[in-house]
Design goal:
The protein has helices at about 25-35, 135-145; strands spanning about 1-5, 10-15, 70-80, 85-90, 95-100, 105, 110, 125. By secondary structure, it is of the alpha+beta class. Among the domains are: about 1-35, no CATH class; about 70-125, no CATH class. The strands form three sheets. The protein has a four-stranded mixed beta sheet with strand order 4-3-8-7, with no helix packed on it. A two-stranded antiparallel ribbon has the order 1-2. Strands 5-6 form a two-stranded antiparallel sheet. Strand 3 and strand 4 form a beta hairpin. The N and C termini lie far apart (about 70 Å).
């Protein structure tokens, strides 16, 4: 028997000869592929009442959600070039975004102290200063003769 568990970044292949996989082996393969090591099966105590329809879990408003690199996130823009204030989007992990009015590149800073946490405006990044690339300062100083 051959079973494949595919996560986002890891693929696990389990091959047995002449027998089926046990539940414990299936759970272990799933956990290894997904990176989720919480118990999937819980043994109930004899006579324990089991709630078939549990209430949905409540999460805090400021709880940080998992963001994959490349996921689309919101950016709060305060452009120092044209004065535009608003919201735009970029991919998670990008170091800059562009102002939707003038097109200038603006540096993405985390909106709060914790990376991935949204601010009161619902944005993960704040872009309110020009993007400065490596070597750009030296070339600007040479340009102006300083």
């Amino acid at each position: 028997m051959r079973t494949v568990f595919q996560g986002k970044q890891v693929t696990v292949t389990v091959k047995t000869t002449g027998r089926d996989l046990t539940t414990q082996e299936i759970v272990a393969g799933f956990q290894l592929a997904t990176g989720n090591f919480e118990a999937l099966f819980v043994e109930n105590e004899p006579g324990e009442k089991v709630d078939v329809n549990p209430a949905p879990c409540k999460t805090e408003e400021s709880e940080i959600a998992w963001i994959e690199k490349g996921d689309w996130v919101d950016v709060e823009v305060s452009c120092p070039f044209c004065g535009h204030n608003g919201k735009t989007g970029t991919r998670w992990g990008n170091s800059f975004c562009k102002c939707s009015e003038c097109g200038e590149k603006l540096f993405n800073k985390f909106a709060t102290d914790k990376p991935g946490e949204k601010n009161s405006y619902g944005c993960v990044y704040v872009a309110n200063e020009p993007m400065v690339f490596k070597g750009q300062i030296e070339s600007d100083l040479d340009l102006f003769g300083v």
